[in-house]
Design a protein that fits this description.
Elements: H1 5-14, H2 18-24, H3 35-98, H4 103-112, H5 121-124
């Protein structure tokens, strides 16, 4: 900082390369009339640098979130397959229990032949419509 502007002009008239020399050493020659605009420029540059760092952090966080969403989606697909498999197994077992040739029908035939049970299967037997259905995907 050179408080007297005329002193800087005198130095320039004495050495024409003074500005280039100062610039090569990364020194800004500032006078009273240029100090506030220069400080505003520096503040703006610092703000831009800080915003750039924030942008980098936001990008890293977005990449991490995207990776986690991919993992969660894959896990949900595995859960869906397991649920479908469980649904198919339940329905197959239910048919074996209550179907036309199911266990309950065989036990009811034995009842019809006169075998006595504590409780009749005809009164409270599982129904064929007890098959399990999972909600269908809505495509959302």
């Amino acid at each position: 900082f050179i408080p007297i502007e005329y002193a800087l002009f005198a130095a320039y008239s004495f050495d024409n390369d003074l500005y280039d020399y100062a610039n090569s050493k990364k020194i800004a020659l500032i006078t009273a009339s240029s100090i506030f605009p220069t400080l505003r420029i520096i503040e703006g540059l610092w703000r831009i640098e800080k915003a750039g760092k924030s942008t980098d952090e936001i990008l890293k966080a977005a990449e991490e979130l995207h990776r986690r969403v991919e993992n969660f989606t894959a896990e949900m697909e595995r859960v869906e397959k397991a649920l479908k498999s469980g649904q198919e197994a339940f329905n197959a077992a239910s048919i074996k229990l209550t179907g036309k040739q199911g266990i309950v029908k065989s036990a009811e035939k034995l009842e019809d032949l006169g075998i006595k049970y504590r409780k009749s299967l005809k009164d409270g037997s599982p129904q064929e419509d007890a098959l399990l259905e999972l909600p269908q995907e809505t495509g959302e």
